[in-house]
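Minutes, project check-in
Item: structure for the 65-residue chain
Input as provided by the requester:
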Amino acid sequence: MIKELCCHDSDRIAVHFTCEWHDRDRKWFRSYDNKNSQFSSVGLVVYRHGSLNDLAVNEGECLFH
């Protein structure tokens, strides 16, 4: 998995991640996720929004080994 910090300030953070995985039939997928979170003054998540997309890939197209 690759996780990238996109931006942040004192109580918010935006993160992008990419990972690859396979199902029981050994069909490979690459997942992309963008997550935005806001935190309370004591560090608890008060708001989180995410968007996840899966892309089917051939095993030879995998970027992570």
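Outcome recorded: Residues 18 and 32 are 5 Å apart (CA to CA).
No further action items on this chain.
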